[in-house]
Design a protein that fits this description.
The chain is of the alpha+beta class. It is 34% helix and 40% strand. It is built from two helices and three strands. InterPro entries: UPF0145_dom_sf (IPR035439), UPF0145_YbjQ-like (IPR002765). Pfam families: YbjQ_1 (PF01906).
Length: 113
């Protein structure tokens, strides 16, 4: 939970808050490639089966960077929350992957204020 923002959600509303302004779609995009050393290490892990921790760490880092970029984009627009957050990944070339994080930037206020 330490790598999330309290006012982001995959839902289209935040319980206890109301949307007062919609800024539209915001996104963060990261393009990553695997290193030769990473591929060798992951290849060794594949010999034993199970979770390939080197790839897991690479994927998590790319997702976090894309998420942070999306939040920065939302902040530049004046938003204080992002709803409808989604991730997408596409292999651009062998070993090169694009990670996209996107959502709708909004300004929210607590209900009752």
């Amino acid at each position: 939970m330490s790598h999330t923002h309290p006012l982001t959600t995959t839902a289209f509303e935040l319980p206890g808050y109301r949307v007062v302004q919609n800024y539209g779609v915001v996104r963060g995009i990261v393009v990553r490639s695997r290193s030769l050393l990473g591929n060798i290490g992951a290849g060794l892990q594949m010999l034993f089966g199970g979770n390939i921790t080197l790839y897991t760490a690479l994927c998590e880092q790319a997702r976090q960077e894309a998420f942070d970029q999306m939040l920065a984009h939302a902040g530049q627009l004046g938003a204080n929350a992002v709803i409808g957050v989604r991730y997408d990944a596409t292999e651009i070339a062998s070993g090169v992957t694009e990670v996209l994080c996107y959502g709708t930037a909004v300004r929210v206020e607590p209900m009752g204020s």
